[in-house]
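Why should sequence recovery work at all? Because a backbone constrains its sequence more than one might expect. Tight turns favour small or flexible residues, buried strands favour hydrophobic ones, and helices have their own preferences. The token representation captures these environments compactly. In the example below, the structure is given first.
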């Protein structure tokens, strides 16, 4: 599933960028695919029997079907969106944030339908919504049957389980130590960006500096687009990233593996920042920046290859796991 994220990132990035720049859509989509393929966090947890890359795939797949739905308004895309959303929730609890795309798609479904002022279309939209909701609910019940079918016993067992193994509100067999919500997760976010995403960190920092510079010069770096589908794509992209980062930051028990679902979205937004903020700058500066990015990407590639090599050695597996943590 980590490998499948690479072509999926390409498809998502191309679908978004071609709305504003068809000429650069392919090359920038390839750039996003390269970023996700050398991403150290995804490479690390793709080599381990953990569900974090799997839930990252289904969350990002939900976003892909969201893009298809707002573009074509087809029932099959809406149902596939709900299916992938349900699978994301079923794989791991943080997959519930994939529901952001389901909520937005449902909102646009009703908004666009009621503009037609036809009761037949409105009733059919409610039928679509209920069917999609039923798909998500069914997968949730199948994935977490115990707390749903026997909630009173689940609450009683939760107290016994938590005192011994830690917090697990679904009694799914996992355990998390609930350390509070005081904002200690900021350390994980900063460390994850600086040490595991150096290329993206550089792009984000450069974008911030260029944005401040453009405000100081009172000069706009790019023209705002009026494409409705593109704007709705950005709303979903920004909303998911902001909500996920907020949850990650406030949770004291956050670990570096929790950044796996965030990684492909950061790759997409990083490429968009490059297109809208870095590309318009002067050619000389753009060449220098491009050279630095190539160096950083090569560094990430070497780090990923080193990790895979270390993990393949039987006598260094324990050391590599310790290095991850």
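From this structural description, the recovered sequence reads:
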């Amino acid at each position: 599933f980590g490998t499948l994220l690479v072509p999926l990132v390409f498809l998502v990035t191309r679908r978004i960028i071609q709305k504003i720049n068809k000429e650069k859509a392919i090359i920038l989509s390839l750039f996003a695919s390269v970023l996700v393929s050398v991403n150290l966090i995804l490479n690390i947890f793709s080599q381990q029997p953990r569900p974090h890359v799997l839930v990252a795939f289904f969350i990002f797949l939900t976003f892909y079907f969201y893009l298809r739905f707002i573009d074509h308004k087809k029932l099959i895309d809406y149902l596939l969106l709900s299916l992938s959303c349900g699978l994301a929730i079923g794989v791991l609890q943080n997959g519930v944030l994939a529901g952001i795309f389901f909520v937005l798609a449902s909102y646009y479904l009703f908004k666009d339908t009621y503009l037609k002022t036809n009761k037949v279309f409105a009733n059919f939209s409610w039928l679509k919504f209920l069917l999609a909701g039923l798909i998500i609910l069914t997968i949730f019940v199948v994935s977490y049957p115990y707390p749903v079918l026997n909630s009173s016993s689940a609450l009683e067992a939760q107290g016994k389980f938590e005192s011994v193994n830690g917090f697990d509100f679904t009694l799914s067999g996992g355990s998390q130590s609930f350390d509070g919500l005081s904002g200690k997760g900021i350390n994980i976010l900063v460390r994850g960006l600086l040490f595991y995403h150096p290329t993206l960190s550089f792009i984000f920092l450069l974008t911030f500096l260029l944005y401040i510079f453009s405000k100081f010069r009172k000069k706009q770096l790019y023209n705002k687009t009026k494409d409705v589908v593109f704007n709705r794509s950005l709303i979903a992209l920004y909303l998911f990233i902001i909500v996920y980062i907020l949850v990650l930051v406030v949770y004291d028990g956050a670990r570096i593996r929790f950044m796996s679902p965030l990684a492909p979205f950061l790759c997409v937004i990083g490429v968009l920042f490059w297109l809208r903020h870095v590309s318009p700058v002067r050619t000389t500066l753009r060449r220098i920046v491009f050279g630095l990015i190539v160096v950083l990407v090569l560094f990430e590639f070497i780090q990923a290859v080193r990790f895979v090599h270390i993990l393949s050695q039987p006598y260094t597996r324990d050391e590599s796991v310790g290095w991850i943590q």
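A few observations help interpret the result. The mean pLDDT is 79.
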